[in-house]
Design goal:
By secondary structure, this protein is α/β, with parallel strands linked by helices. The protein has 16 helices and 17 strands. The strands form 3 sheets. The chain has an 8-stranded mixed sheet. A 7-stranded parallel sheet has the order 3-2-1-4-5-6-15, sandwiched between helices. The C terminus is likely disordered.
Length: 382
Amino acid sequence: MKSRILIYGVDGFMGALASRAAMRGRIAHVAAGRNIAGVAQHAAALAKEAGTTIAEPRTFTLGDKARIAAQLDDVGVVVNCMPLDGTDMLALLDACIDTETHYIDVTSERAHVAALAAHDEVAKRAKTMVMAGAGFDYAAVDAVAERLAQILRGARAVTIAVKRGPPTLAEAERLVAALGAEGETVKNGQFVPAKAGERTLEIDFGEGPEVAHLAPWRGEATGARHRGTYSSIESYEVLPERAVRVLEKGKLAARLFARGWGVKRLERKLSKGRLSPTAADLKNGRAAVWGEARSPDGGAVRARLETPQAHLYSAEAAVLLARRALQGAAKPGFQLPFAVAGAALIEEIPGTHWREIADPEDDLEPEPAPALALGRVEPESA
């Protein structure tokens, strides 16, 4: 019986963090990645800390589906924590489906969510689960949205706002690209094109009101058709001040950004060169998801989920989902996190706090943002 968890990408920050979360839970697992030295060093460090061989090192690249499949003979679920391009992600995914190995990915990017969702039918035929969004940016949001739907039966619309903390360089690169690209929301069951920041909300995440900007690049809309609960979905995010500036029409920064100038500089400024969070960031950082669900009869309920630093939540959530999948909770086809872990994404991850907000207003009407610069960003050459 295939009963092992394989965490891919332990030679990178997020994979190593997830592997450590598994170690804290005393879960023996396969620690895999591309770099022989990096994987071996990580596994050795965990063995020293745990006092036993809790992570078996395994190294393989992702170019050859057959070669990947050979590494999965004893693996029941793969947790991919490495940012992959489309070709590599699909090779890993196809190998998992061919070997009836459940696949869990922390990615929440719209394009990747859509690519994984497109494998719904083939995964069902193979009796294999395919999951996107096992990290904070989707799992925590999914948990809030579904918990609100349980509280307010008949809810058909949800508004989500996220506060996640300073971005790393890779996250800043994705954010900057998203700020200049068209995304989408869902209204009455239809996908509606939307631009970053074209509406704003004032949200209290627990420390007083903060402005959150429309974030149509997030993956919630893409996964909406697989949730089935809501027919209208909007997502907002608290943006760094420098990111807000490039959306304010008339400002020099906005005019330059609309022409695709200064993109790399903006990425560096947003991230301050961070390739990964520091130990202090992980220890002291907090993140939050605010949500409001509404029903056609005028009912409304609001709540807020406060979590540890976003990367820490992601690591714990990914391991929790993998463990649940091996315990029999996996469902064939494309799935969202809450379908597998349910309330555990709120109740069982250390450091999370759920707060219902009493007496919400009858309606939440977003105000138009100040005039925005909505030009596209052309990628710069490296």
